[in-house]
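During the reporting period the student researcher (J.K.) took over the structure-prediction task from the postdoctoral fellow and processed the backlog of single-chain submissions. One of the processed entries is reproduced below for the supervisory committee.
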Amino acid sequence: MPSALLVDDDKLTLRVLSDMLQRGGFEVSCYSSPLEALAAIELERPDVIIADYVMPEVNGIAFLELSVTRSPESARILCSAHTNLDVALHAVNAGQVHRIIPKPPREVEFVSAVRQAAETVGLRRKNEELTAALRRQNLHLEDIVRERTEALLQGFVASLDARDSGTQWHSQRVARYARRLASQLGVTDPELTVIERGALLHDIGKIGVPDQILLKEGPLSSDEWRKMREHVQVGWALLQKVDYLRIASSVVLHHHERWDGKGYPGGISGDQIVIGARVFQVVDAYDAMTTDRPYRLRVSHDQACQRLAEVSGTQFDPAVVSAFLSVPPEEWLRIRSAIDQIAAQGRGA
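J.K. obtained the following structure tokens:
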């Protein structure tokens, strides 16, 4: 049932207008005080608000303007014997009066006008409900796509790490390390998650590198090295195709740049390198040094920290290295242990 709220300081007029609307199928509430009506509007949220123009506390146009913040979706009608040009212009300039009805109104015309206003409000509310439902459905679908894409990317990362037995679980470790180090630098979400994802996916472009190059035991030729270096652009291009990962693509593109400008692919330096890539470079080197490889044994945490300090300001951002060294060693060991446990569970499965 459509609802209407009537405001008129003349109680007889209130009763007449209320009877008309009730016969027309409306649920009606009546108020002779505009201030009392304003307090009620916020609770009732009527489809249509109908006010007289001349009232002792506040005139009808001002009342309808005040009602907007309390029930913005309601239609507003001015019903008054004062329908001269000045009143009409005042109502138009106020911008909150949808219609002016002369008083006393004829019942058929009055009820019809209020019903049209109520139907417009009903359609608007229905449209808002459908829009909200569609938005919720789209968000749900986006979550499903994101989860499936995330799982697919995790599979790619695991496959890439598995191609080289010496770097298995490397991407998972550096992703966790990168998040912790970025946090130490004062970075907060959502940027933390961007950096973590960029670190996780840093080598996704190696999907396009042939095994005979990626797994070659001896030194690479100049052509092979050029092909290997292309993985940063390939990874960047891949992430451009996934909306929610596009923001992390700069970490992938810059992760082989150097603070002194001697890296690749762009040879950029200093703060030109995105912070996520500068963070990654430090934790990537740390993970490489503290992990056994076929051609060398790991070094201790303290030895790795010493080597990071030695190239601070040349290879790495000094502020990032300083932040890394300020993190208690047991935190880095705890992260590594957590990934080792996940790896052990995976082998057990």
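The committee noted the following: The two ends are 61 Å apart (CA to CA).
J.K. will present the remaining backlog at the next meeting.
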